[in-house]
Amino acid sequence: MSWQSHFLEQGLYGDLKALFPGLAAFADFPSPAELQRWLAADTRTCSGKTIQFCAGPADEYYEAQVLETGRVPTRERNWHDLFNALAWALFPNTKAQLNALHVADIKAHGLHPRTLRRDSLTLFDECGVLVVATDKTLLDDLRQHQWQRAFVANRERWGQSIGGYVFGHAVYEQGLTPYLGLTAKMFPLVVSDDFFALPLAARYQYLDKVLCQVLKAGALDNKKRLSPLPLLGVPFWWPDNQNPAFYDNVQYFRPLTTPRPPL
Q1: Which range (4-18, 103-117, 189-203) has the least confidence?
Q2: H/E element holding 102?
Q3: Using one digit for the tens of pLDDT, what is the confidence trace for 146-160?
Q4: Beta-carbon contacts of residue 28 (< 8 Å; ≥ 6 apart)
Q5: Which of 8, 33, 111, 233 is deepest in the core (most CB within 10 A)?
């Protein structure tokens, strides 16, 4: 059994399997140099430095090192850093923008205490899942914790007019040992009707460009746009959710006591 076989066959990792077919060919963890091959050659920081995955820990504050040198510390045989490298390959513009926003905030407010803005940026970078839909009401159902409507009544619409796209590398890492209670942070985005007709790679390219723009405009200046997403409830990401009774667990699929503002 190969090192990656225990996760590539799980629904949560379906996009990684499709977009990085070479993962299945590695007998062991890919090295930073091997991960570099999946990164577009022109991937740069907002300061114009070419992104390079390099072995070892950060020499200084992580975000500043990335912005000033382009060097992304990538530990050998480390799941967190492996998935971070793949996130750079999938969302190069957004990752660069997040990095620049972090450093700008530190320059303006200092390292400590952390600002609400930096907390929001980190939360999305680590735990964010883009949920996109052609119909805003589908996103509002998730934001208002209308789980039965979102996941059961509208299940057949997932993959057709609503879908989830993992951004946060910690989401993939935590998914290696799934448990009831596993929750990500949803970033909702309305897309055009033809979005789901695009090839998978083109969908990610589109999302990367749009997400970069909305973050630059301040979409994560606070956490209000983010909301809890019970990860194992997303249709086709976890086998047990094929049974509608799976969603009856109110300890996992919690009701919302105070409604959120509409999108």
Answers
A1: 4-18
A2: helix 92-109
A3: 999 999 999 999 999
A4: 3, 77
A5: 233
